[in-house]
Amino acid sequence: MTAEPGPGEDRPLRIALLSYKGNPFCGGQGVYVRHLSRELARLGHRVEVIGGQPYPVLDPGVALTELPSLDLYRQPDPFRTPSRDEFRDWIDVLEVATMWSGGFPEPLTFSLRARRHLAARRGEFDVVHDNQTLGYGLLVPGGAARPLVTTIHHPITVDRRLELAAAPTWQRRMSLRRWYGFTRMQRRVARRLPSVLTVSAASRREIVEDFRVRAGRVHVVPIGADTRVFHPDPAVPRVPGRIVTTASADAPLKGLLHLVEALAKVRTEHPGAHLVVVGARPADGPVAAALDAFGLGGASGAVEFVRGISDAELADLVRGAEVACVPSLYEGFCLPAAEAMATGTPLVASTGGAIPEVAGPDGVSCLAVPPGDAGALAAALGRLLGDAALRERIAAAGRERVLRRFTWEQAARGTVEHYRAALAAGRRPTAARGVAQAETEDQPDRD
Hints:
Elements (H helix, E strand, L loop, with lengths): L13 E6 L8 H15 L3 E6 L11 E4 L23 H11 L5 H15 L6 E5 L16 E4 L4 H11 L3 H10 L2 H11 L3 E3 L2 H11 L6 E3 L21 E4 L10 H11 L7 E5 L7 H8 L9 E4 L4 H9 L3 E4 L8 H9 L3 E4 L4 H5 L7 E3 L4 H12 L2 H18 L2 H18 L8 H7 L7
Parallel strand pairs: 1-2, 1-4, 2-3, 4-5, 5-6, 6-7, 8-9, 8-11, 9-10, 11-12, 12-13
């Protein structure tokens, strides 16, 4: 009888990758699941993604197990009340009750469903990799009876602070506090995790400070661009004056409001400058008001919004721009920066969060500006639009930087190293304490 290879040996691993939401076209979590799972499979590992709605889109070679919720935020009827025959168990009741009280239930309820699912499949996986669920269910006995590795892209407390600062009324602030109530759970769970992966040194600092996770437990594994899709293509012509950005008008931390103001300034010297935003056009709110105030909306043609495009279409859109822009106030990594650089498009980027780690030195692989400074943003955009030699030099340096540091294959190899370290150490989360103790035992959380 042949002995099974030990956990520290270089053998293919059986990996369960958990993600409470996996939409690859909305937010970074779905993008992470799709690309990391594909590269892990290409390295020879068996990867099964266990996901909630919206379900992830995966590449061939990766299995998907759907873990359905009540999908309370689906379009076109978000915040819906399910019919009585949709309820299956007490977790469904908890999900609806939390939504009715103004909270966001999905991280908790997905973790409880994942715990039940994994307990029924004990022994089928070598390692469980949680993609920022950080729910109590992963700490309850039976929920993680094998090494648990967790990725925290950045603490959602950062989003919470920025949205509260931008809230125009006390009613809105109260609503945001209820919505972000799940961050207290995430802090408590994060403190008990034996191995936390994150995507940048900036995120690592935020996790240590906001979640109070011991620094020695948090490890940086950068992610990157899919360089088979995002690469230069001489057949795609540059569109004069085009600036492209991937930024949600609904998220203040993405900085689109400041980019709209900057565009208005740029057009005084470069009247052909125009912006293509990969995202939904806002019907109202600060960005919509700014478009009207600066005369950039409607028939002006100065700002175009596109959505629902494929990765290949996005790559062509970025390749066709003279300049790519990341105006974010904060990013835990910044995939749009890496993807733009990979296509050979010169980049203007803020210095918010981890963006400098990705974009590199000012004047070398990008033009860097302070976050929230529309004047500095306008000056950098105008400088690139007016200097073809500078665009070419920055574009070449940016692509070289991505190829050297930020690819998904490198991310997968670095992640596997931490899987094997967790297996070798036999680490476990502090499961025996359970949910009730997790609720009461910690130091007081900062609000």
